Amino acid sequence: DQQVKQNSPSLSVQEGRISILNCDYTNSMFDYFLWYKKYPAEGPTFLISISSIKDKNEDGRFTVFLNKSAKHLSLHIVPSQPGDSAVYFCAASRPFAGNMLTFGGGTRLMVKP
Amino acid sequence: NAGVMQNPRHLVRRRGQEARLRCSPMKGHSHVYWYRQLPEEGLKFMVYLQKENIIDESGMPKERFSAEFPKEGPSILRIQQVVRGDSAAYFCASSPPPTTGNEQYFGPGTRLTVT
Questions:
Q1: φ/ψ (deg, to 5) at B86
Q2: Closest partner residue to B45 among A44, A46, A102, by Cβ?
Q3: Is A74 exposed, middle or buried (0-12, 13-18, 19+ CB in 10 A)?
Q4: DSSP state string for A34-71
Q5: What is the pLDDT of residues A31-52, one digit of tens each?
Q6: A105, B76, B98, B110: which has the highest count of C-beta atoms within 10 A?
């Protein structure tokens, strides 16, 4: 039972344009959401997070939006840069669950120069 | 200022051997998590430890796998009698005592290949 899903395995975007990565979840107990970026042969790197009490969080070029009623979150990258090319994972956690993160399957973003 | 360190980075074992994966958390972090990533999949939680305590091992296979985080030294993930299906990337993450945020910081991973 996949509680966090990233339905787009890959996304290709032109440099300078907006990249939008999507994530859906099924467990309404999740109260904290995170995005990680991963390059090949490296560990995931934390990008940005959002608490369920908010609907938006922004950090530089990265903005995460949360729609609780739709159980959907998205990561916007503006403007996209070739160095953003990586696999992006969304993850979620819930209270009193040992702080474990539940990850989606990842979306491979390719930013073309 | 070292981040999360894992060694070895690559480990090759024959079926039936034991694999030991080590993880040193970031300085000041007392919470360690292990995740496994199979090819073309996301990361799957295995176990959550604090010093000398296993807090949550709900993602750990019941047999052959064990984890520890001793008072001194790194956290160890041990896989006994490895099988081909254990081939994966194993990532360790650490965090300070969790508050309202659950950011975990990951090491570079150990890629285990079972031949």
A1: -80, -10
A2: A102
A3: middle
A4: EEEEE-TTS--EEEEEEETT-SEEEETTEEEEEETTTT
A5: 999 999 999 989 999 999 999 9
A6: B110
For B6, counting Cβ atoms within 10 Å of its Cβ (0-12 exposed, 13-18 middle, 19+ buried), the class is buried
Interface residues of B toward A, Cβ cutoff 8 Å, are 4, 6, 31, 33, 35, 41-45, 48, 55-56, 58-59, 91, 93, 95, 98, 100-109, 111
* pLDDT tens-digit readout, B38-75: 987 889 999 999 989 999 999 999 999 999 999 999 99
Q: Smallest Cα–Cα separation from A2: which of A50, A71, A65, A49?
A: A71
Residue in this structure with the two tokens 């993602």, named with its chain if needed: B59
Range A50-54, long-range pairs (CB < 8 A, 24+ positions): A51/B100, A51/B101
The CA distance from A76 to B61, in Å, is 36
Element (H, E) at A92: strand A86-93
**CB pair distance less than 8 Å for B100 and A34:** no
CA distance A27 to A102: 10
Backbone Cα Rg of chain A: 13
